[in-house]
Amino acid sequence: MGLTGARWRKSSRSSGNGGDCVEVADNLPGVVAVRDSKNPSGPALTFTPAAWRTFVGQVAERA
């Protein structure tokens, strides 16, 4: 699966000092991609939109 055209955005919880950050691209049809902002040319994890919503919901419950 290619991620050409992905518009990456940093987590709203990321700090501006180059710390541990993730970036998410949710503009592609049928997939949400996640990558390490320190290695933008490295691998990305991909999820279905439903799986990503479940993950984010579970994280929010624990925050």
TrEMBL record:
Start and end residues of each DUF397 domain:
6-59
> What Pfam families does the record tag this protein with?
DUF397
InterPro entries per record: DUF397
Could you tell me which residues belong to the region Disordered? 1-22
What protein am I looking at? DUF397 domain-containing protein
